[in-house]
Amino acid sequence: MERLLEAEHGPGVVPLPSRATFYRLLKAVSSGRHTLGSARTRRSLAKQPDGMFGQLTAARPGEVMEIDSTPLDVLVVHDDGTVDTVELTGIVDIATRTLAAAVLRPSTKAVDAALLLARAMTPEPMRPGWADALRMSRSVLPHASLMALDERLAQAAAVPVITPETIVCDRGKAYLSTCCPMTSGRRWTGCRGTPTTRLASPTTPNSRSCGPPRSRRSPTKADC
């Protein structure tokens, strides 16, 4: 910057602030624009709409569910003894705002997406050490009427069992894999019909199902 000013105006004509002040001013000017950051981030922000993010309305459980993965800003000890970050993958029901299932993995694979679907559609068994207050029979869920459908609910925890009709996901490798039941075209065992998978647009930032914990924006699925 100093060389540019001297070349255009001459040496000592335009005074410069201290280095610390200069960086504070630069940070204030470039805040939220990623001027010195990734060009990919700037392109993504440029495609962001000026209006508010929309909402997708679901009237019943399982009508629309979202599945996504996000890295966590924590370090954990893996099974092999190494210390590294992990990814949280979860599936959320839009109508009830229920986190139907979630897994922690070093990196999300197609098998993790399949595991989430299986856990969302099957009763969660009570585990040793859990309090009786966590049983489904102690909750407000219609336990008695559901017993005729699945006897496993007698020993299940108070976690809703939700069968998805439509799943919204981004274009992550784990969800586009041929091993993933959502996009492989295979019929799901135990489902009434084949759930629909809606892939988010690869270029529209506001069509992703969810962002990392650092971003608190609520995206829309209108463009999916």
From TrEMBL:
Ranges annotated as biased composition (Polar residues): 194-204
Region (Disordered): 191-224
Record GO terms (molecular function): nucleic acid binding
Protein name, as recorded: Integrase catalytic subunit
Lineage, top ranks: Bacteria, Bacillati, Actinomycetota, Actinomycetes, Kitasatosporales
Originating organism: Streptomyces azureus
Record field: compositional bias (Basic residues): 214-224
InterPro entries in UniProt: RNaseH-like_sf (IPR012337), RNaseH_sf (IPR036397)
